[in-house]
Design a protein that fits this description.
747 residues; 16 strands; 45% helix
Length: 747
């Protein structure tokens, strides 16, 4: 029966391919998910989608009332997941955003921890915003309340909404718009200026400076109106520096050579394509303008560049750290970095722009408040030149007219940023993450070495029952509290599904190296599967497994009754986890995102990653499994865990069987069968390696001359021989209190 069910699941899933899985998503991909009135209020039908630009007209009866399009067809919308965030956008005939609908995403923080409604509420702030009108009057994008815990996702979504609206409005000529920067009359002059010192660059405005004190930041949070954030003031005296932030356009040759020096400037040129520009951002003080978000997701979530209606975010791939500023008299600054303007951005270096600094403050365990500060920048006129009228009339924008004349002079310069990044592989993202987690990696390495020692010297340890029990309890406590709740290195069946998907769609080692603890754990699990099967992880390194076992220990100490599942029922329940895993795997072949959502059957994210700080239904489900484990030890591990099932399948290929058994096990003795915490020992006495968690309790019994009938009999004979050798009369020795064989014999 089970085979038929599994075959049906596999066939159905392979036959089903979600919409858009085989080709790039378009507006038509998602048009059936939204009503016309959701995107343009009052509309009742969509017109046919235009091929160029790919926009659908929206009608009320026969009256054109607006336009609808998909944001990802116009701008890059990749977030933490590196997959597009698809949003349908509605514009009225004047280019004002009047409707938004989030139709598809793969953002893990929204999938596992942040209610999607909070993201929808965040997007609502953009309704009523006209980006071209805002650019004309200098007001910029709307001030929005970012989603705590999903800052990068929210920033990417907001940027994609505004930038795509600008592009569509210009393509359609809404509101009388035409080409970009119509009023621009100047462009960057690559021949202007000379190498000068720091103070001169600051005095002439080539380097701009923002100084914030502790009092500046505290006052801004008070003005923002969040009482919790206002109470959690920054430490220090009011005049203490919070951050000194500097910015400069280093793709202008004279400014770039002055600040970077010849060698660093030449290296930066290798990052730039023709007509591409870069800025230098440097900071000092207690607050980091880089933060740590870019390490996890590759996106800098504390700075953004704004020019007119354009909002530009920076990614790790187009960033380069700089050690010191080369200009004479430059201060020593804690953080210095080159940030390349992404290709496709409508950035004009000759026009004013501003760098926006986002300052965040924790207001709870998973919540933050945000305020922002602007650092305006306008390159001095001496570094620009006028644009010939015929160039603009011919359609050449000022940015194109100011192409860098000196770039071809650099022999051997890589053709684009990707070539540079491959060439300069000394500091890849994954390596920096590993370097930042040296202590955690060392601790995990010590845990793995200790566990290897436990298994290799198990015979010596299990003979000392109390010592071994304390070692196991201590190890499980470290696994739960440090590996789980602190380091959050909880493996999941999602990792298995992602790995399988990567093998089918294009494997990239850097994607798996990005989290060193998870990567090391998976490598250790792969090795352990060869030696001992799934037990090394499930019984020792799984934080949720440790939570179940430790909570059951407490329940036993409090005399909570323990339920023994009848063997016939147990045999029919343990295959359930294999069915769950195969179903998830089958679904992942069609839609990995949907499979990740279904993988919520694992309580790991709720109980370990988010520490039970989540919506009540997730918490209730996780607590229900923990409570079940108080009465049936490791209830979830036994019957529901898809990760355990995934590990058990390759675990059958293990090379060694280090768990010892006697001929008498199962006939007549059944003590191991009765005491196995997960019922991995059959009544006949043999161990089922698919279900064994390598807790080694059976080996404690195997070596105990107070509990194992075979060992008891051997001890009694030995004691009798020793007594006879000493000439001591020997009576019949009773060991009734030591669990004789008859007590454990099969009835």
């Amino acid at each position: 029966m089970w085979r038929a069910v599994l075959a049906a699941i596999l066939i159905a899933t392979l036959a089903w391919q979600p919409v858009g899985a085989q080709q790039a998503a378009t507006f038509d991909t998602f048009v059936n998910k939204v009503a016309p009135g959701d995107l343009v209020p009052g509309a009742d039908r969509f017109g046919p989608t235009r091929p160029s630009p790919p926009v659908a007209q929206v009608f009320r009866g026969d009256q054109l009332v607006g336009y609808a399009y998909l944001n990802s067809q116009y701008v890059d919308t990749a977030g933490y997941s590196s997959k597009p965030i698809h949003i349908l956008v509605g514009l009225d005939t004047a280019g004002t955003i009047v409707g938004l609908k989030l139709v598809e995403h793969s953002e893990p923080i929204v999938l596992i921890g942040i209610p999607e409604q909070r993201v929808v509420d965040f997007m609502a702030a953009y309704i009523g915003y006209n980006p071209l009108r805002a650019a004309a009057d200098g007001s910029g994008p709307p001030r929005v309340d970012l989603v705590s815990g999903a800052t990068v996702t929210a920033l990417v979504m907001g940027e994609s909404i505004t930038r795509s609206a600008v592009r569509v409005s210009r393509l359609l000529g809404l509101g009388g718009t035409g080409t970009t920067h119509e009023a621009a009359a100047r462009t960057l002059d690559p021949e202007a200026g000379a190498v000068v010192g720091w103070q001169q660059l600051v005095d002439e405005g080539a380097v701009r400076h923002l100084h914030l004190t502790v009092d500046d930041v505290n006052r801004r949070f008070v003005e923002a109106g969040d009482p919790v954030a206002a109470r959690r003031r920054e430490r220090g005296a009011p005049d203490d520096p919070f951050i000194d932030l500097y910015v400069a356009l280093v793709s202008q040759p004279a400014i770039g050579r002055s600040l970077l020096g010849e060698n660093e400037y030449a290296t930066m040129l290798g990052m730039l394509a023709p007509d591409q520009h870069a800025i230098l951002v440097a900071g000092d003080g207690t607050y980091s303008f880089k933060g740590s978000g870019y390490v996890r997701g590759g996106i800098f979530d504390r700075i953004e560049l704004l020019q007119g209606a354009e909002t530009i975010r920076f990614r790790d791939q187009l960033h380069r750290r700089v050690g010191t500023i080369a200009a004479d008299g430059a201060p020593s600054l804690k953080e210095i970095g080159i940030f390349v303007i992404p290709e496709g951005s409508e950035f004009d270096p000759a026009q004013p722009w501003r760098l926006q600094l986002l300052v965040q403050r924790a207001t709870g365990a998973l919540s933050k408040a945000f305020v922002s500060f602007d650092l305006p920048y306008s390159i001095p006129a001496s570094y620009t030149r006028g644009v010939p009228a015929q160039s603009t009339a011919a359609g050449m924008g000022p940015a194109q007219a100011g192409a860098r004349a000196d770039m071809p002079a650099r022999a051997g310069a890589p053709a684009d940023a990707h070539a540079f990044l491959e060439e300069d592989a000394a500091d890849p993202l994954w390596k920096r993450i590993w370097q930042s987690k040296v202590v955690a990696i060392a601790m995990l390495g010590a845990m793995l070495v200790a566990l290897t020692g436990i298994f290799f010297f198990q015979d010596a340890l299990v003979k000392r029952e109390k010592l071994f029990d304390r070692i196991r309890l201590g190890y499980l406590a470290i696994t739960l509290f440090w590996l789980g709740w602190v380091a959050q290195a909880q493996l999941s069946v999602v990792n298995v599904l992602t790995f399988a998907s990567a093998l089918r769609t294009g494997f990239n080692w850097s994607s798996f190296l990005i989290d060193p603890l998870i990567f090391i754990l998976w490598c250790s699990v792969a090795v352990a599967l060869i030696f001992w099967g799934r037990g090394a992880f499930c019984g020792w390194l799984c934080p949720f497994g440790a939570l179940q076992e430790l909570s059951n220990r407490i329940a036993r100490a409090l005399k909570v009754p323990q339920l023994k599942i009848p063997w016939a029922v147990h045999q029919r329940l343990w295959p359930v986890k294999y069915i769950i895993f195969l179903a998830l795997f089958a679904v992942s072949l069609g839609s990995l995102a949907y499979a990740e959502t279904l993988a919520e059957v694992e309580p790991f994210k709720t109980a370990i990653v988010l520490r039970f700080m989540r919506e009540w239904w997730f918490v209730l489900f996780a607590l229900a499994l923990v409570v079940a484990g108080l009465f049936v030890e490791r209830f979830f591990c036994r019957y529901l865990c898809p990760l355990g099932a995934a590990l058990a399948i390759p675990g059958r290929m293990r090379m060694f069987d280090w768990l010892k058994r006697y001929r008498e096990c199962g006939n007549p003795c059944m003590r191991c069968f009765k005491e196995c915490p997960v019922e991995a020992i059959h009544p006949e006495g043999h161990i089922n390696p698919n279900e064994c968690i390598s807790c080694l309790h059976c080996q404690v019994l195997y070596h105990s001359d107070r509990k194992c009938p075979v060992k008891i009999q051997r001890r009694l004979k030995r004691e009798k021989r020793e007594a006879i050798a000493k000439g001591i009369p020997v009576a019949v020795i009773s060991d009734a209190g030591d669990a004789p064989a008859a007590a454990d014999a099969r009835p």
